[in-house]
Amino acid sequence: QVQLVESGGGLVQAGGSLRLSCTASTVSLSTNAIGWYRQVPGKQRELVALISPGGSTNAKDSVKGRFTISRDNAKNTVYLHMSALKPEDTAVYYCNYDAHTPNLWNPSGFGSWGQGTQVTVAS
Length: 123
Fold this sequence. Notes:
Blueprint: E1 4-7, E2 10-13, E3 18-24, E4 33-39, E5 46-51, E6 57-59, E7 67-72, E8 77-82, E9 91-98, E10 117-122
Parallel strand pairs: 2-10
Antiparallel strand pairs: 1-3, 3-8, 4-5, 4-9, 5-6, 7-8, 9-10
């Protein structure tokens, strides 16, 4: 079973920055569409940003201009660069992949998730 591993979360003050990493050992992140998601207790998991196999990116409106998704093919790693963090960005962040970019918009369609990484933004 393919497992993605998220890392890089932590506690940061509002206005600060973090870089999250998503790695995989048995799947190529360079030939798949990768999405970063977040979830807070009691709410559905939501797509935050995505990168297509061709490198096109998109992001949720509330994070545009603050979050950037990028990929390092040599390291088989996808990053989420987060800046100007706000308390409402506090969540557990996850990554997942699919061969088809549009499928990333439906997180309920994924059969498995990694452990995620906690991001806490203090006001």
